[in-house]
């Protein structure tokens, strides 16, 4: 079977995506699958080439001219055209050549690759791709919408305020005052983060108004909307991945500072060179976490997976307030770093990474088949001549 | 000359040597921006490259008195040895050679030139003396191959540049972003980055050339490759390299507004006098429309004079000194948690803020950008919040902590004011001892010696140890440091940057603070 592994893209989490893709390429069963790595540069050009399998290729200035340029033409699979799907831009014998791909394995993180954009492209082309569909992806990547839906369904979330960049630019002082007012009776400290980004980019704790202003300015460099929540001082972050009806082991990421930063996630770790989220120090299936809390986490995660119509492997991040002993949903990652394979490998019995990938691919094919079963013809009625 | 095995080896060795050496020279040619005059002048000053020609002449001298056995083996070995010794400039060196299309063309044409000349010359030789002389000349004139190639390619390069420039002008005219030009002897790049971030955050999409690109062709390339269709603003750093540099750049990117930072003795090698520097920078003022917002440094009387001479009285000024009556008054309020506290007072409004940028010159740059962004319609509170998140540009007064040693990286460039600012900042950093590592300042023309001495004298009052890098300003720095009161035993001389870092490892201890001021490119470390 031909599988394209897509990664990179115009995203702040571009590098993290490369790490996830490299781990996937290493783990995937190459006897079952013929792999085509597809790297999307920050400028949006698609590439393929053997060099993409080598970690040392990825530097700040990569020799992209050594790769072959690609493009994607979203023609439906029943189209007679040879110029559809993934094609080489370097013409062979004067023609664009299609690269036959059965499944597109998405290893993106952040904008465009994780928020439904590329998923929409593949839906249009009626090709099989892994992970959440456009609707679940976009909801998952919009923290405010995700919280609102889950809160409506009685899943516990922290209260929040959201602020649009354009409102902040019109009258910043008033906008900050509105944030404070809408979070009342909660007061400082608050936690500020971008609405649409992951990997702990541009997050921070605001101890006072000056901090709030500074952090909002930081968020608006990268996003059009900020989310502000009351800051849980005695916080324990707890994560769990879900694939279908299977929950992974629960993890508590270990952090040095008050909250888990980008540096904690990707620039430190036990294995020396960063392996993305896989190398973060963590406590997996902690024995001292109460059974009831674990049960709650599993049940909330499974319910949320179902409510948001998720597919593939997702990771739910929860916050546990140690002072009030309350659990809150924090955020959902529709394509978690390293596909959270380390959490599935920690299960008993473990689910190894290559099996996870097999399941992702099979699920993608099944979804494509389901979609193709739907009738698309309702007859020519509205415009029919009477 | 008989084409036997020995002579074939010699020809191969010669061509290989010329190939490696030409590539090595190409790196310096590129650093001199393909200016043939400056490149040739530099190559004449650097006698290290005359080693091979000298050895070949030595062989000739020996042969005159004592007939050498295996005659051709000696020059072949010399050529092969030095060719292999030559490092690949694309991989090693402080500033790597970038094989741009222009560099590739120059290299190819130079290769054709020296190959043709070598084969032609060697085919007519009859004696060992003639051979030695020919080898001497062929190797001694290596820089000339590049220069000649540059001259031959000049018409094509000119045509290409004209085409690119026309394209860039068309693109810029179609998009018509509101353009802010920035000029001055220093602070341009910092202002460009700060202002672009402020505008992008608070007003609209903003285009700005990367790093410190400020030449006509550099900006042309940036426009062609990176100017997005929907860009509302453009912030262009305008470097004055010679008369009409800025005027020409202003035709490509007509400025609607301008920031004038400061005039100082930088790049005096090019302009020869401050008066000429001021004339060159004034080209930006002359390119502005009458309703332009001009933001000028009130503490720099030369800037104010430039505006007066250009009959531009309605400008907005910023500064620290109250007696200069700036429109925006900057006040420093100390340091808290490694952040500088400050206030800007403008039109009776006081804006208080904090910044990670600690030096006075950086604060001055921030004030300029704040004022410009404010006048363009940005929310002042958002600007202050933006300033709080700004970090130093790489190697421009960048403070870092490594193994409990504070490093103040100011390696990018150095001018007298910047150097003094860096020393002031170093003196504020709590430290057991303070160390300075610097090759001194360059491109100050006649003032180079004097300015290096002056700053070194000030440095002696701030630092406990000094590492002088390279020979370029060794004498002046040493003189200034000793005159300032530094003991000879606390002075270290290092041939190059690598050696200096090794010495630094031995001198610096936990709790110390180190200032790395200026970092010469490869040209000056030869």
From the structure above, extract its key features.
heterodimer, A: 386 residues, alpha+beta, eight-stranded mixed beta sheet, five-stranded antiparallel beta sheet, 11 helices, 17 strands, globular, B: 526 residues, alpha/beta, nine-stranded mixed beta sheet, six-stranded mixed beta sheet
Any overview of this molecule?
The complex is a heterodimer of chains A (386) and B (526). By secondary structure, chain A is α+β, with helices and mostly antiparallel strands. Chain A is 31% helix and 25% strand. Chain A has eleven helices and 17 strands. In chain A, a hairpin with a 2-residue loop joins strand 5 and strand 6 (95-99). The longest helix of chain A has 21 residues, at 353-373. The model of chain A has no long low-confidence stretch (mean pLDDT 89). With 526 residues, chain B is an alpha/beta fold. Chain B has 19 helices and 15 strands. In chain B, the strands form two sheets. Chain B has a nine-stranded mixed sheet, with helices on both faces. Chain B has a six-stranded mixed sheet with strand order 10-11-15-12-13-14, with helices on both faces. Classes of the chains: A alpha+beta (386), B alpha/beta (526). The interface between A and B is medium-sized, with 15 and 15 residues.
